[in-house]
Design goal:
9 helices, 6 strands, 230 residues, alpha/beta, 6-stranded parallel sheet
């Protein structure tokens, strides 16, 4: 049982609604378009390398992703990719930015069960406009006391959030699907964290070493995490 918590922070993408699936679909389309030039394994490896190189400049989100897709496609084809294919990749990015918001099972019900008992905070990263759109379309916006859209989720970012909320680390619980972004940074500050794994995980968010911390919990679903709270 997690005691003393006053504020519960929820990640958005792949914690409350579907997200990574859409990136995988765009990646598959990217591989199909690049098939005359290289195999899927090489295309995806090159794309990931580009994303990592561009991350300090572009950050996270669909727009950053599509810029890396375009750059990778041009590099793989030595700049000879037909304009029509480039246009298709741009349109794929626009389509991804317009995807419907599909709530994960129990998301709305769990938030409704906790609102009023705790201050609920949405803590997400990525493109500001895209995240604002998804939150607005989700129908969940009214349940959150505060919304924090970060450029990244490092310990310093969470520390700023705690200072803004005027709470101690032991009063904050973070819930999310990413060990790297949602779990490890809050734990480093002395917060509580509940990991809810999602079937599809971006390579960048994976953590190989097991987490050993008395403030760390794992739940199978959002419903399961409720039982951890008094």
């Amino acid at each position: 049982m997690i005691e003393q918590v006053e504020v519960v922070g929820f990640d958005a993408d792949d914690t409350l609604w579907v997200n990574e699936l859409y990136f995988r679909q765009t990646e598959q389309y990217f591989c199909e378009l690049l098939a005359p030039y290289t195999n899927s394994t090489t295309a995806l490896e090159e794309l990931y390398r580009t994303e990592m190189q561009n991350m300090p400049l572009y950050g996270y989100g669909v727009k950053a992703f599509i810029l890396s897709v375009l750059e990778t496609a041009l590099r793989i084809t030595s700049g000879q990719l037909p304009p029509a294919i480039l246009q298709k990749l741009v349109e794929a990015g626009k389509e991804q930015l317009s995807k419907p918001v599909e709530l994960l099972e129990g998301a709305e019900e769990v938030l409704n069960a906790l609102v009023g008992r705790y201050r609920l905070i949405l803590v997400t990263k990525g493109d500001l406009l895209d995240q604002e759109r998804k939150l607005r379309v989700s129908g969940l916006e009214h349940l959150f006391h505060h919304v924090e859209i970060m450029s990244d989720k490092k310990p310093a970012d969470y520390q700023k959030l705690l200072s803004h909320l005027d709470i101690l680390p032991g009063q904050f619980l973070m819930v999310g699907n990413s060990l790297r972004s949602d779990i490890l940074p809050p734990l480093q500050l002395g917060c509580y964290a509940v990991h809810i794994p999602y079937p599809i995980e971006w390579l960048h968010e994976k953590v190989d070493e097991p987490i050993v911390d008395t403030r760390f919990y794992t739940a199978t679903t959002l419903w399961d995490m409720i039982s951890l709270l008094p």
